Amino acid sequence: MSHHDVVSLIEGDDAERAALQRRVLRVVVVSQVLGGAGLAAGITVGALLAEDMLGTDGGAGLPAALFTLGSALSAYLVGLLTQRRGRRVGLGTGFAAGGAGALGVVAAGALDQVPLLFVSLFVYGAGTATNLQARYAGTDLALPAERGTAVSTALVSTTLGAVAGPNLVGPLGGLAESLGLPPLTGPFLLAGVAFLTAGAWLATQLRPDPFLVARALAERAERVAVVVEGRPHRSGLVVAATVMVLTQVAMVGIMTMTPVHMRDHDHGLPAVGLVIGLHVAAMFLPSLVTGPLVDRVGRIPMAISSGVILLLAGLTAAYAPADSLAMLVLALVLLGLGWNVGLIAGTTLVVDSTTPAERPRVQGTFDILVALGGAGGGAVSGLVVAGSSYATLSLAGGVLSLLLVPVVLWARAAGGLREPAR
Q1: Does a structural domain hold residue 421?
Q2: 420 lies in a domain?
Q3: In terms of Cα–Cα distance, which of 316, 325, 187, 334 is closest to 262?
Q4: Which residue of 8, 135, 214, 286 shows the fewest CB atoms closer than 10 Å?
């Protein structure tokens, strides 16, 4: 059945729309489980692999910078491709590129080729960008008061793969060694398979395409799904960008250097995997609660709460004893939770503030800003720690995240932010 046939079937029939929405979410859930396993490789062992190959911890932040820069370019390209061809083609292509990049990292480690490592990490970023952009597919056919919950469904399904990945560092390292590869390339082997499988799944199963259906529905009805008076709120986009970028900078900066900080204080790889695994769980698993809260409590209160939680994370990381695994776990769990709240609140604001016709392009542009913010946080994090300390980095990240609060309050006072009707 073509998407035009689907439009004819569901136009004016909310039950049919809801049924198609449930099918889309089921497909997205599977892709996100796979994508989560892929994205965990870079944040768990990327810095350690670079440190080993470069021989210095000053460049340990480069992997995060490179794959987030690659994520920035990919976010734009996936958004553009989605605008023209739909979610199925855009997301499928992005995951395929990410899988190729992950396998390139494995080859770079095996050959001890730093230039190939950098290029491959850049391409690997396509997988992380696509995994993040897949959350938008869940919102295409959702009603305004359901969007936070739809985003949360996509994000929470990332948890299984994303948490399993870091905790498989040991076994995957053993697998890599048995294949004659450096142990730290093991997680990237998993990432390559996971991203390629996710791309194939979406390319074959995301039919009818939810974005094409939503766009056709809006065009046929000569209206758009927006919050107030049929017109999008541009101030909502300013707030969304601020919330998502600042939370990304704070999260990536602290997260990137935590494995290096732990190894410098005699924590082994299993401990590193545990901390990062729980951090990633906190990035996605709370979506079961935070998504519905964004719909019920509101985008604005939840956005403000994300800044407060990230400040607590920075303070905890800064003052945690270096040998205290429990305190590092607490800091990284708070870090993941703050990012989760900010991302869901920001994502729903983007959808609220755009029309279906322009939505993928704007979404891709915003994910570029998020990726560039992460790249900056990752690149600077290594330099800050090398020049000062992990505590300084953590404090800076926490304080920086609070800058989103005055922006949100400004937009709200100006009357440009209103919650959707429930």
Answers
A1: no
A2: no
A3: 325
A4: 8
Distance CA 68, CA 63 (A): 8
- Give me the torsion for CA of 385, 69, 275, 48, rounded to 10°: -60
* Residue burial 19-51, b: 16+ Cβ < 10 Å; e: rest: ebbebbbebbbebbbbbbbbbbbbbbbbbbbbb
- 259: its two tokens: 């494995």
User: How far are the Cα atoms of 214, 314, 339, 411 from residue 238, in angstroms, in the given order?
Assistant: 24, 25, 18, 8
Buried b (16+ CB within 10 A) or exposed e, 181-194: bbbbbbbbbbbbbb
Residue 37 corresponds to which tokens in the numbers above?
A: 């396993």
Residues 6+ apart with CB under 8 A from 35: 95, 127, 130, 131, 134, 158, 161, 194, 195, 198
Backbone angles phi, psi at 421, to 5 degrees: -65, 140
Cis (ω within 30 of 0) for the bond into 292?
Answer: no
* Best CA proximity match to 185, nearest among 44, 68, 32: 44
Helix (H) or strand (E) holding 32: helix 14-54
Q: Which residue has the tokens 């082997």?
A: 189
In this prediction, residue 250 carries a pLDDT of: 92
pLDDT interval class at 90 (50, 70, 90): very high
Give the largest CA-CA distance in the chain. 63
User: Range of 277's domain?
Assistant: 3-413
Length of the chain: 422
Report if residue 168 sits inside a domain.
Answer: yes
Residue 248 token pair? 């990304």
**Model confidence band, residue 229 (pLDDT cutoffs 50, 70, 90):** very low
Q: pLDDT > 90: what percent of the chain? A: 27
Q: How many domains does the chain have?
A: 1
Structure confidence by residue, pLDDT tens digits, 11-29: 656 778 888 889 999 999 9
Closest CA to 398 of 246, 218, 225: 246
* Prediction pTM value: 0.77
Choose among 221, 332, 233, 244: nearest CA to 282: 332
- Which residues make Cβ contacts (< 8 Å) with residue 340, sequence separation at least 6? 155, 282, 283, 284, 286, 287, 290, 306
CATH number at residue 390: 1.20.1250.20
Asked whether residue 334 carries a pLDDT value surpassing 70, the answer given is: yes
Report if residue 114 sits inside a domain. Answer: yes
Q: Are 353 and 232 in contact (CB under 8 A)?
A: yes
Each residue's pLDDT tens digit, 270-306: 888 788 878 888 988 898 899 999 999 988 899 999 9
